[in-house]
Amino acid sequence: MNSNSKNKKNDLYNILLGQLLSQDDGIDAEVLSNSALKAIKFASINRNFPIISNILLKASSDLKRDNKKLNQNIFGSKFKNPLGLAAGFDKNGVGAGIWDYFGFGFAELGTITWHAQEGNPKPRLFRIAKKKAALNRMGFNNDGARQFFQTIANQKICQPGNRPYVMGINLGKSKITPLETAHEDYALSLALLAPLSDYAVINVSSPNTPGLRSLQETKQIKKLIRTLKNLYNCPPLLIKIAPDLSNEELDEIARVAIEEGIDGMIAINTSLNRFNLENLKMKTGKTLAEEDGGLSGLPLQERGIEVITRLRTISKNKLPLIGVGGINSAKSAWERIAAGASLIQIYTGWIFEGPTLVPNILDGLSLQMEKNGFKNIQEAIGSKEPWK
Fold first, then answer.
1. Residue 201 gets which letter from DSSP?
2. Active site residue ranges
3. Tens of pLDDT along 336-374?
4. What's the total number of domains in the chain?
């Protein structure tokens, strides 16, 4: 695909959505997100119909990249490229049949809880356009694990290992479940959804479920890991951690993860830190400091690198790491990989930059590999090579 064609695709996205995304007022962020998901759901269910199939194939010809140098085998799965869709966008798996058409090497669905739940009161998702950021206090709104299973079944998704992309499933605690029985709640979800999962994620780092982050403490996380790993069909298991942990807490959770046989870690989730944006006025009339919820997007970029770098050092390269938070360009993607991430994920950046962010990142990674003489993306992981 030539650069003029790419620019036209970006221009189309900017014409249709750019004006809406460039301002905090206007159409509610969650309404926009749900509208997009309805279209994606329709396309996924009907992806084999000729008209829909042709549209998807045209999109994939623009967005996909087939470069074997980007291939990796991690967690027992083949990743065609290191770029994935982060959890939080497709909570209920409605697009599970088509995420590869957008160029992603993997997609993480969820967060899913055992009990269906509506989440926190609306409004609960806000654009912070000038900072390429978002604030959310969604509260794990989802249809529940049993409906998720049925949603995947309705789309007739291939079994793990036979899909065109790797599918992760992100699990959280139901709000109504007491913290002392959280391990049982996660186990119910994983026992049901394990056969669908290429890998599963223990989400103990969202700031929007009361008490959830306490599950990152040593005693709690050990109990949770052991319960899940004892399931007879447990898939590769990862932990997603918060950016607000101290260095000592990061060191401890990495140590526990290695001791308990965790397969990888995802860093980072949304942050309660406001990164010097406390006085920024929100559409609600309050300042960012006065609003509840987790911050995502560009302000987290530096912290994301710091956490990946520390986890890489503490784990002595024994744990595959997935870097997420503030990745909105090929440069920021390369920096996360060079810091030690085997894989990377995008969400907020994808919303603001548009679908062509995926091929732009993949093309950028390929070019950097070429400049450094790397034959495979694995050589770049933890290389500390700067963007050239």
1. E
2. 206
3. 999 999 999 999 999 999 899 999 999 999 999 999 999
4. 1
